[in-house]
Amino acid sequence: MRIDLHGLTKSFGDHRVLDGVTTTFEFPHTLALIGPSGGGKSTLLRLIAGLDAATAGVIEVDGRPLPNDERSLRDYRRGIGVVFQAYNLFPHLNALENVMLPLVHVHRIPPAEARERALTVLRRFQLEAHAGKQPAMLSGGQRQRVAIARALAPSPSLLLLDEPTSALDPEMTAEVLEVIAELRESDTPIVLVTHEMGFARHTADIVAFVADGGIPFSAPAVEFFGNPGTESVRRFLAKILRY
Amino acid sequence: MRRDHPSKLHAFLRDAFFDRPGGPRSPHAVTVALLLLGYSLACWYGFSRVAGDWGLVWNYRVAFVQGWFLTILISIAALFLSTAIGVAAALARRSAFLPLRYTAAVYVESVRGLPLVVLILFGFYVVANALQWHDRFSAGIVILSLFSGAYIAEIIRAGVESVGRSQWDSARAIGLTTAQTYRLVVFPQVLRQSLPPLAGQFSSIIKDSSLLFIIGITEVTFAAQQVASATYSNLAAYLPLGLLYLALTLPVSLLTKWLERRFRYET
After folding, report:
1. Running DSSP on this structure, what letter comes out for residue A67?
2. Is residue B175 within 8 angstroms of chain A, CB to CB?
3. Distance between CA A192 and CA A160 in Å, rounded?
4. C-alpha angle with apex B178: A14 to A58, nearest 5 degrees?
5. Alpha carbon B64 to chain centroid distance?
6. DSSP code string of chain B
């Protein structure tokens, strides 16, 4: 998987969250974006997801530039999966119906087949027993796993995870991270925004440091954590690893 | 020390009239019985001083029943029409097409700022008259629906706005179109959220329909007024009127409470 950013800028009013970022990520499986809050990680992920339009600049995913118009962006989004921090699931549908909804209404798979496919994915994440439960009856960790199942069911070419564990307690965090780690065995490439440094170190191929509207440093995980080449990364890691 | 060892009388009064933590589970029986007795005496004394010829009014029972059925008919028709108007106005207020959005905003805000009486008088004697629309019954239903529709628009709008940004994000991330998002994600949630307040609005429609008597629609309030002036018996005409309205609004109120429990939103 290769993602190129060319002069990528995103402003909200006068505030430039991303300021002319140009870089290339090449990773076999997982790219982790880390950095301080408000540094632009989630904004970058939303741009890659085609949920927001860049103010200026271009994103290329595997050499194909992302379109600008909403209709083409929708087609692009249909080919990828996204999981947010929380409230991904539709509260009026049970887990199975949540996973089936995009299969039936976006990918036009006949309901019976969609049901089989959804059950297969839920089974893979040990969620079969919870298929008939509404999101309100699931734990936070189960909800995030169902959300990942829903994102994966249409076999996306790329999976984007925006701080998928930051609203969870440590035990549920572990349960969700385990699922994400298992995804390495499948072929779906992942871009992950996370605060879990240990997880980024063990699971990511490439770790990128997003701060102050730019990406001052990115490197293979071992190098990133073993010998961070930039002062700002060293300071960030020292700060969060102190306690 | 008195608090720890209350006298028998003190304990009885406390248990009979006060709801307190740790008290008896059903302390209300004495209170309810005493209140019923007291208020009944007050009513009996009050009503005995007002002329009430129940026998004379009984002769007009058909007028009451016909008026009551007309009230029900008007309320049900207005419920459906005002729901349609309310949903359309709520969507129009969110429209990207500005003339539509502003039209809906002016409609909702001006109607909510007007007393229903003014709307009925103006709607019937000015607007309907100018349109050569002389059918009181249909004009009354439309005016009542336009009034109630503005409130329903706000109920629906609150429901749509309560569906969080994250739901829209998730729907877009999946690749749903805007129309699909409304149909599959937003409206099912709005319906659950809005059913209790909509049922409450239905109760308001029933009560508000009484004002249509001023343009001569022969609903139940009109009937009661006719009976009162024909028999000079205000009590015997207006007491049944109140009871006939309660017979409609109390079940709706119970329905509202049931819906609130049934669709209480879990987050």
Report:
1. P
2. yes
3. 6
4. 45
5. 21
6. -TTTS--HHHHHHHHHH---TTS-S-THHHHHHHHHHHHHHHHHHHHHTS---HHHHHTTHHHHHHHHHHHHHHHHHHHHHHHHHHHHHHHHHT-SSHHHHHHHHHHHHHHHTS-HHHHHHIIIIIIIHHTT---HHHHHHHHHHHHHHHHHHHHHHHHHHHS-HHHHHHHHHHT--HHHIIIIIIHHHHHHHHHHHHHHHHHHHHHHGGGGGGGT--SHHHHHHHHHHHHT-HHHHHHHHHHHHHHHHHHHHHHHHHHHHHTPPP-
Residue B116 in contact with residue B147, Cβ under 8 Å?
yes
Structure tokens at B63: 């007028």
pTM above the 0.80 mark?
A: no
Length of chain A: 243
Give per-residue pLDDT as tens, B28-57.
788 888 999 999 999 888 877 776 678 888
pLDDT-based confidence at residue A170 (cuts at 50, 70, 90): confident
Contacts of B267 in chain A (CB under 8 A): 91, 136
pLDDT at B1: 47
Question: ipTM value of the model?
Answer: 0.89
Task: Indicate if the pLDDT at residue B145 is higher than 80.
Answer: yes
Q: Please indicate if any CB of chain A lies within 8 Å of the CB of B176.
A: yes
Report yes or no: B174 at the A interface, CB cutoff 8 Å: yes
Quickly state the pLDDT bin for A234 (edges 50, 70, 90). Answer: confident
CA A206 – CA A219 distance, rounded (Å):
6
How far is CA B207 from each of CA B93, B138, B238, rounded to the nearest angstrom?
A: 27, 18, 15
Candidates A80, A101, A148: best to mutate against B (most CBs of B within 10 A) is A101
